[in-house]
Each structure stands twice: as C-alpha cells, then as structure tokens.
Amino acid sequence: MSDASPSQPELSIFTVDTLLKYMGNDDKALAIVAKIVRDACVPRMTPLEQAGAALREDRLAEAGKIFHSLRGSIGALGAKRLVAASLKLEQAIVERQQALIPPLFAALESEYQLVLREADDWLQRHAPPGI
After folding, report:
1. CA dihedral in degrees (122, 90, 108, 32; nearest 10)?
2. Quick one: which of 94, 91, 50 has its CA closest to 70?
3. Consecutive H or E run containing 82
4. Which of 12, 58, 70, 73 is the most exposed place for a label (fewest CB within 10 A)?
5. Separation between Cα atoms, residue 22 and residue 34, nearest integer Å
6. Distance of alpha carbon 37 from alpha carbon 116, whole angstroms
C-alpha cells in the first residue's frame, strides 16, 4: 500500500471507462462511445466563447445556462474536474460574486481545453475507422 494514497480519489479530466463498461465493453460499445465523445466535442471552444460574451455583456443567466449545458454534456465523459469547475462558476454567477467570475471562468476554460485534448487523444487511440 502506498503512503501517498489520497484520502479521496483524484478527480478525472476525462475517462469513458465506466461508460464503456456499462455499455458492454465490446466493439459495439466502443463505436457508440466514440460517437458520443466525438459529438460532445464537436462544438470545440464555441460554448465558452458564447458564455464569455454573455458574461462580458452582463447576461449572467444566459452564461449560466451555457455552463450548465456544457457540464451535462461533457460531464458524461467522466470530466469530473470540469464539472467541479463549472459548479463553482455557476454558483458564483447565481450569487453575483463578480470578483470571482473571471478567475473561475479561466479555470473552467483551462479544464475544458484539457478535456478536449484528452478526448482527441482517446479518439485517435480507440475510435474505430469511419467514426
């Protein structure tokens, strides 16, 4: 047993292992999960660009909806760090904590970029041809 074992599991950037397992962990499951990953990542940075514009224009409710939607679609990919970052930002928006919003937005943007990078890497290694 390692002395460095954390008291709680580290939050993941991206992992579809559980999703694959629940879907049968076979070639058919791999094809379906690859499509889910690809579809979830198609918008690339567009949601954050739209949310950033909404924040700059003080359309906080609209920005919050974008973050909530992003959290749902990308969170399904095991992106626990992104989910945690989004929840913090969404809470700051609800509470109108203006000073916290820019750094929390930057943190979420960074997490999203990591998710996209890891999803792209996963797809290159695992996606069946033609997906």
Report:
1. 10
2. 50
3. helix 80-94
4. 58
5. 14
6. 9
Q: Which string of DSSP letters, residue by residue, matches 83-126?
A: HHHHHHHHHHHHTT-TTTHHHHHHHHHHHHHHHHHHHHHHHHHH
Amino acid at 121: D
85 Cβ contact list (under 8 Å, min separation 6): 104, 107, 108, 111
- Tell me the pLDDT tens digit for each residue of 10-50: 789 999 999 999 999 999 999 999 999 999 999 999 999 99
The full DSSP string for 41-68 is HTTTTHHHHHHHHHHHTT-HHHHHHHHH
Q: Please give the model's pTM, rounded to 2 decimal places.
A: 0.86
pLDDT tens digits, one per residue of 80-99: 999 999 999 999 999 999 99
What pLDDT does residue 131 have? 54
Give the pair of three-digit tokens for residue 43: 């918008």
